[in-house]
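Sat 14:20. Reprocessing the chain from the morning session after the first attempt stalled halfway. Input below, unchanged.
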Amino acid sequence: MSPWPIASLLPHAGDMILIDDVLAHDADGLTARAVVRPGPYSLPDGALPPWLDAVLRKAVHPNPARRYGELSEFLHDLRQPPPDLLQRARAPLLQRNPLRFWQTLAWVQMLMLLVLSLW
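Finished this time. Tokens:
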């Protein structure tokens, strides 16, 4: 337990307080402990869903014409991800089916060796 209430040390309140305990301090710095808690968008393992990355990429796209036209569109996609973003945000083959990935890689290598040996 901290010797001081965290709220008295930080200018934040409620969910904005990200530090759980002050472990040590001196004139030059402070050592603290923070526990990462799942948020509204996190998966059970603590990761963020792939569709969230797609929504954020669209929101900050370098081409303004490809960004959200209105803030309400962005907020709607955060609350209810559109099916097209869900389909594009599929996990890579290595994560979905590692065996298939390595089998495909082995076949590609074998074909490359065959071509090189005939050349």
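DSSP finds six helices and two strands in the chain.
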